[in-house]
């Protein structure tokens, strides 16, 4: 069976706690199983569980993806409601996710539903799984193939985590008596044990010099377009920001008033980070200088005022704050590509290679990696918003440097 989507986007989804009949009515013509009480109740519980995460669109999408995959497999492959699955059947589903049939795999991200004659209808091109290729492969003219689909370790961990939460919710609703995911004893069959510490992906100091010089050159050539670019690049590295902490979304809209001066004259930037937790990021003198330059370009006073509602990152066209994380990615990628080209022209092609695969998040990693060399790691942890010191410790390379130095002179022919 080629699957169709069941759960629409958050902005199109009615509240399942109060408007479930409104949601299920059009689905019943699409899915005959919903005429049966068990399947109807199964969908209602799933929707209520997913809708509980409507405070964050990204979190909602993640939970919807995993639960919808489970529903599609359980209903149409296993032919049972998700609430009746046993431990061995959940394991079978995870095996299915690791290697799904090709007609369940797409080669591009497409909308789940389309508007047709005033109605929301399933998009026939949508698939539960999507095959991806690397940035370098894409630039070399390669296209994704469903036969090359693979599920990352992070994706497998997400399946376990989200489905365990889902079945925990079903237990609380007294729909089941045991959590079948928690009963799986050998998760190591699916999830590999990682090495002690994964290498942090970052760009080198030389690469950053070229990247920020490129942004400065762009700002000089076309300030109307690229003064914003220069500020974004400085903010992502200098304050370790995630994209979600820089653009406006349903949770927050960063404004200039989020730059705060305390009683000692020190500046901080207030952000809403993962888990809806607010944190204060210390603003360095150079970051404050970058902010001042950016504000002067925008005909604003040098420094923000209390409760100033001016968007930190405005749209280039139209009014209001930038809401597209993709646009930020494109801005950063343009700087990376331009810097790569400049390095190649200067005879440093080998040194430039990482810029071909680098992502926006590498700037956060780079900023943290540099700061943890010279600042107390407790301070870096607070600025970065890490949940534990163990996360910050990943950025400390001293042990790796010493370990490699001791091995550097090893002979292949011992004396």
From TrEMBL:
Key words, A-Z: DNA integration, DNA recombination, DNA-binding
Record-annotated membrane-spanning stretches: none
InterPro entries: DNA_brk_join_enz (IPR011010), Integrase-like_cat_sf (IPR013762), Integrase_catalytic (IPR002104), Integrase_recombinase_N (IPR010998), Tyrosine_recombinase_XerCD (IPR050090)
Record's keyword annotation contains Cell inner membrane: no
GO (cellular component) term, any one: cytoplasm
GO biological process terms on file: DNA integration; DNA recombination
Annotated Tyr recombinase domain residues: 198-409
A GO MF label: DNA binding
Keyword Endoplasmic reticulum recorded: no
Annotated localization: Cytoplasm
Gene3D superfamilies recorded: 1.10.150.130, Intergrase catalytic core (1.10.443.10)
Protein name, per record: Integrase family protein
């Amino acid at each position: 069976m080629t699957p169709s989507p069941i759960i629409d986007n958050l902005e199109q989804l009615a509240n399942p706690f109060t408007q479930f009949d409104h949601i299920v009515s059009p689905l019943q013509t699409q899915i005959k199983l919903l005429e049966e009480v068990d399947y109807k109740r199964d969908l209602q519980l799933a929707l209520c569980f997913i809708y509980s995460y409507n405070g964050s669109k990204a979190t909602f999408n993640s939970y919807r993806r995993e639960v919808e995959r489970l529903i599609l497999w359980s209903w149409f492959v296993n032919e049972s409601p998700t609430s009746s699955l046993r431990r061995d059947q959940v394991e079978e589903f995870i095996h299915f996710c690791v290697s799904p049939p090709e007609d369940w795999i797409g080669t591009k991200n497409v909308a789940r539903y389309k508007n047709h004659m005033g109605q929301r209808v399933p998009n026939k091109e949508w698939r539960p799984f999507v095959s991806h290729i690397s940035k370098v492969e894409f630039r070399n003219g390669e296209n994704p193939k469903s036969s090359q689909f693979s599920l990352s370790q992070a994706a497998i961990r997400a399946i376990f985590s989200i489905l365990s939460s889902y079945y925990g919710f079903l237990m609380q609703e007294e729909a089941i008596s045991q959590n079948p995911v928690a009963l799986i004893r050998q998760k190591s069959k699916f999830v590999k044990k990682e090495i002690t510490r994964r290498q942090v992906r970052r760009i080198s100091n030389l690469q950053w010099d070229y990247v920020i010089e490129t942004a400065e050159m762009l700002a000089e050539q076309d300030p109307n377009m690229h003064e914003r670019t220069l500020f974004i690049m400085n903010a992502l590295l200098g304050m370790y920001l995630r994209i979600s902490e820089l653009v406006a979304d349903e949770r927050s809209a960063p404004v200039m008033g989020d730059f705060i001066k305390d009683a000692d004259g020190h500046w901080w930037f207030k952000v809403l980070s993962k888990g809806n937790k607010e944190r204060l990021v210390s603003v360095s003198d150079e970051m404050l200088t970058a902010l001042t330059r950016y504000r002067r370009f925008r005909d604003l006073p040098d420094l923000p005022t209390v409760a100033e509602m001016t968007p930190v990152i405005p749209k280039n066209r139209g009014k209001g704050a930038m809401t597209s994380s993709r646009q930020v990615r494109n801005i950063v990628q343009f700087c990376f590509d331009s810097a790569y080209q400049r390095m190649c022209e200067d005879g440093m092609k080998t040194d430039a290679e990482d810029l071909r695969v680098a992502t926006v998040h590498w700037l956060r990693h780079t900023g943290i990696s540099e700061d943890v060399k010279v600042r107390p790691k407790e301070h870096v942890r607070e600025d970065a918003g890490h949940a534990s010191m163990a996360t910050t410790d990943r950025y400390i390379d001293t042990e790796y440097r010493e370990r490699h130095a001791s091995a550097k002179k090893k002979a292949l022919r011992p004396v």
